[in-house]
Amino acid sequence: MKFTAEQIADILEGTVVGDPNIEVTKLSKIEEGTQGTLTFLSNSKYTPYIYSTKASITIVNEDFTPEKPIETTLIKVDDAYEGFSKLLEYYKQIKMNKLGVEQPSFVSESAKIGDNIYIGAFAYIGNNVEIGNNVKIYPNVYIGDNVQLGDNTVIFSGGKVYSDCIIGKNCVINSGVIVGADGFGFAPNKDGGYSKIPQIGNVILEDEVDIGAGTTIDRATMGSTILRHGVKLDNQIQIAHNVEIGKNTVIAAQSGVAGSTKIGEHCQIGGQVGIAGHLVIGNNVKVQAQSGIGRNVKDNEVLQGSPSFGYADWNKSYVYFKNLPKLAKTINELEKKVDGHN
């Protein structure tokens, strides 16, 4: 896909300094720019690269004035970083502007399909599914019976949404995500094994939820596993049955939340964090990476460690952790001196 400098300037409401007809087809870092690429300059420490870059077009701040000759065509905007981000979003929208139902695919006759939708090849849409407007379902996606998908939601290739789950508006479900798998419910039986407990609930994702690749969100045993408005999950996360995550909470990769735990609003949870079941995590909580949470957490706490405790206390304690061999040696020497005086 080609864009001229003039077209880009129109999109960004910027001004061209150089050749308005020069074309670009790719994006690049300013230090790695080549002919036919578009880049940007917003951080002053990268300014030297604008004099050597081979990028055809560079987006710069309105107040930028080169001190030496340059080869690249400039597009001046109020904020170069914001302008580049806007252009990325525009490009993404064009790239994802797919419409229609590809074949082979299966769409149940009882499914209700909105306007301007895309259903990719080998997708499966089950009975009584309701799909809103502008939804995009990429190839090899499975949508089970009675699922609801809100307007503008995107499900990338290989995503699975099991029966009865509800997905809100403007959600993104990336490749390999499973929404609505059975929760981990088993009861010991008299034979010494385990009997499966039927999982008859569902999963609800409210609006603006984003789920990273390879993440699994289990359906509730009864009721619903719920991710509130604006929740963002990274890749390869496990959310167990009957968990509830408050609005605008974010969780980084490889974390796991056990069953029936309630996490509050606006929390930030680092990578590889483990949270035990049946806990209540307050609002605005921050958990550092690789921490283990085994207790209820109050609002605004900042935690680290496994088992976790206060972040400030953890940092102070770590000073002693590092010096334990020296401390042990000192104690041994003191004990010998004390024994020698007895």
From TrEMBL:
EC class: transferase
Catalytic activity: a UDP-3-O-[(3R)-3-hydroxyacyl]-alpha-D-glucosamine + a (3R)-hydroxyacyl-[ACP] = a UDP-2-N,3-O-bis[(3R)-3-hydroxyacyl]-alpha-D-glucosamine + holo-[ACP] + H(+)
Gene Ontology MF, one: UDP-3-O-[(3R)-3-hydroxyacyl]-glucosamine N-acyltransferase activity
Key words, A-Z: Acyltransferase, Lipid A biosynthesis, Lipid biosynthesis, Lipid metabolism, Repeat, Transferase
EC number: 2.3.1.191
Role, per record: Catalyzes the N-acylation of UDP-3-O-acylglucosamine using 3-hydroxyacyl-ACP as the acyl donor. Is involved in the biosynthesis of lipid A, a phosphorylated glycolipid that anchors the lipopolysaccharide to the outer membrane of the cell.
Oligomer status and interactors: Homotrimer.
Family: Belongs to the transferase hexapeptide repeat family. LpxD subfamily.
The protein, known as: UDP-3-O-acylglucosamine N-acyltransferase
UniProt source species: Winogradskyella marina
Gene (name only): lpxD
